[in-house]
Amino acid sequence: xxxxxxxxxxxxxxxxxxxxxxxxxxxxxxxxxxxxxxxxxxxxxxxxxxxxxxxxxxxxxxxxxxxxxxxxxxxxxxxxxxxxxxxxxxxxxxxxxxxxxxxxxxxxxxxxxxxxxxxxxxxxxxxxxxxxxxxxxxxxxxxxxxxxxxxxxxxxxxxxxxxxxxxxxxxxxx
Length: 174
What we know:
Layout: E1 4-8, E2 13-19, E3 24-31, E4 34-40, E5 44-47, E6 54-57, E7 59-63, E8 68-70, E9 74-75, E10 80-81, E11 88-89, E12 92-98, E13 104-109, E14 112-114, E15 119-121, E16 125-128, E17 134-135, E18 144-154, E19 159-168
Antiparallel strand pairs: 1-2, 2-5, 3-4, 4-7, 5-6, 7-8, 9-14, 10-11, 12-13, 13-16, 14-15, 16-17, 18-19
């Protein structure tokens, strides 16, 4: 199998990008002129049919105005722990959401991200800022073993919501 992104122009379908290895496209979300692409496994998205560029692994951003695929980083190939506390989950991006300031929030099953220079630890949620920097929301998801299935940003309340499947460990107080 090959991960492929197709575009329908109202009359016909055309391929705009593909991953040449056994990689699944797991999430698509558009915002402004960008199409964000989440992947399972470690393929690199490459443009086709007038689209050019090569992404990092796990996540890609396609500039629809310029037909260019942007390399914005790589998710770690390390597997993560499932909600059962045992199962290994392949790294994947499950969802994207955006705020009114130009930041992109990403949820999935991943622990580390690199922009090619810096290796950062994330806990299944990451933010790609409007300045092009990867940051992590201030949230300890390791207390909730599992991974994020969806993310939503409420632009009116200025709040980020995440949903997923987790194993919640009870906490004790002294």
